[in-house]
Amino acid sequence: MKKSLALVSLLFALSAASFAQTMPAGADPAIWQKALKLHKSALIVDGHNDITTPMYDEGFDLSSDSRGKYHIEGTPFHTDFARLKAGNITGVFFSIYVSAEYATTGGSMERAMNLIDTVYREAEKYPGKMMMATSVADIRKAKREGKVAALMGIEGGHAIEDSLYALRNFYRLGVRYITLTHNNTNNWADACCDKKPHGGLSDFGKDVIREMNRLGMLVDLSHVSDDTMRDVFEVSTAPVIYSHSSARKFSDHPRNVSDEILRLLAKNGGVIMINFYPGFLDQRNLDEDAARAKKFEKEIAAINERFKDDPVRLNEEVRKLYEANPIYFPPYTRIVDHIDHVRDVAGIDVIGIGSDYDGVPWLPEGMNGAEDHVLITYEMLRRGYSEADVLKVLGGNFMRAFEKAEKVASGSISGEGIQRKMQQ
Length: 424
Fold this sequence. Notes:
Structural class: alpha/beta
Largest sheet: 6 strands, parallel
Strand content: 5-15%
Helix content: 40-55%
Low-confidence stretches: 1-18
CATH superfamily of the largest domain: Metal-dependent hydrolases
Radius of gyration: 21 Å
Shape: globular
Order of helices and strands: HHEHHEHHEHEHEHEHEHEHHHHHEHHH
């Protein structure tokens, strides 16, 4: 058995080596070598990865080579074990994404349970590559052992079906954050992109936040309305996160975060983990994408009708249409523009990385998937960031916030200091 595991580990290392990152055109060779060295040593946590959905729905196996392959909806894969290894990503929050349709048709909790089971089964299948992680200590252990630390975050608070009992059981199963809403408002929290009947959080929603604090489960504010964000900052006694959001300065999308809210985040001691979706990174991409969809509305409708019984072909034809009519995509350096801005508004200590790999249809120009994480390290060093600050962004800031949430839950520290800062 030990020999078999050793062979698997060797093959894993060899496959990762084949991803040797090519230095970007025009890059400074000295800074590039420095970036490679620093990146390899870093403890990196990615706040949001949607590969879980195709793992369950499409039977995707993380040991597969996903390069050049497409999801059933026609978008490219970004993640597999070798690509995570090449990107030196230790902690991955596997998204337990429960779409809005389950909020109306039922089965939200069951959907979440199925996805959670999928993550556990993958870890059981590949113990030499992946381990379940529920704490800061687990992430550090995975780093020492060269494994992927599989964390889980529920995306869509309707998955708890308005039950604190369910919330507690999800925590027992290993869920360590809940995105309070997806784009849909639920019975206790307003979403970014839906009706807003609660004006933020309902009274029960505030109870949810308090219980999450008590448990040590991080509150995730990606996808919620601005008023919901403000309410959470008033209630939470532990640091909160945005698992995959960006700065509104560069793209005026409600999924992004305003400067006002970023300042509240700094007082809270939480972390915003920058999303790689081009539409959230850049207003021009967001506008051109919307204009293209409108321009080809009839063509897309015709494709939908013609291939309504063949979703693979349907999405392939839509993808071909879009590829024949390209739009502007920002370069990967735009990610660091967001890091720059958040640093200037709220400080270096509130920034992390939440790629949204396999949950977005495209990545910025120059990025293909998880193997390209080092580009962020390079660009930050090129702009003069210290190595210590780069390490904070790659994972250190998240680890600090997560550890503080754990301590608030255990009672070893008080959350009163956070509330005093919020009131100042």
